[in-house]
């Protein structure tokens, strides 16, 4: 996937592209293993800039599901042009198909709301390989709204639904930053192509905080959500794995981790403890 982005640099021409190239050459060495982006608030002006020469695709829907923008006009359902790389779009298609399948009891997905994919700034957004998820609406009337800080809802069912939605993101993306991760992500779930393949790593702050939040919200583990994988987190994770019937190593096997994420998502969308 990263090879695609690097290859595309060869096609970039013109003055506008020089700025793009400068940005890419800054981030490209870090794509494989760098820390996730922490500054993740995008302005309308940054998104209005055309990626143009960077050979991104433009879309208004992901696999037929509309993607709206509410940051400047809450609730609007105006079609909007978004951009990302072909490879990232393909991952988005896989992601939304997973989401449809795992949340099918809610009906179909009427639309999603994003705060940005390609954005004219450094990092994964600048490379066209990131998504900020603000909101999902299902045909049966359910919603999940990271935009409204659903991770911190006083309603346990909403917190489970948020974690279910994040678990689906984690099936397809390795760097997923949520409301527990830091203040920049209190109002959206960020997913990108950094650090692939998908799995859960003990030395990842974002992965560890997700595990801690899942253990607390589905099993009442009472962990401090500090991103540090200590003895209590290990014990809680062992209990979570066992209760979900997960065999194999989700720290090294993408398929084991994806299966575990699906099971978390199923429980979360059903508002069930684990
Ligand atoms: Zn983001």
From TrEMBL:
Keywords recorded for this protein, A-Z: Signal
Database matches in InterPro entries: Extensin-like_C, TAT_signal
Signal peptide: 1-34
Keyword Signal in record: yes
Segments forming domain Extensin-like C-terminal: 121-193
Any Pfam family hit: Extensin-like_C
Top-level lineage group: Bacteria
Protein name per the record: Extensin-like C-terminal domain-containing protein
Organism (species): Lentzea aerocolonigenes (Lechevalieria aerocolonigenes)
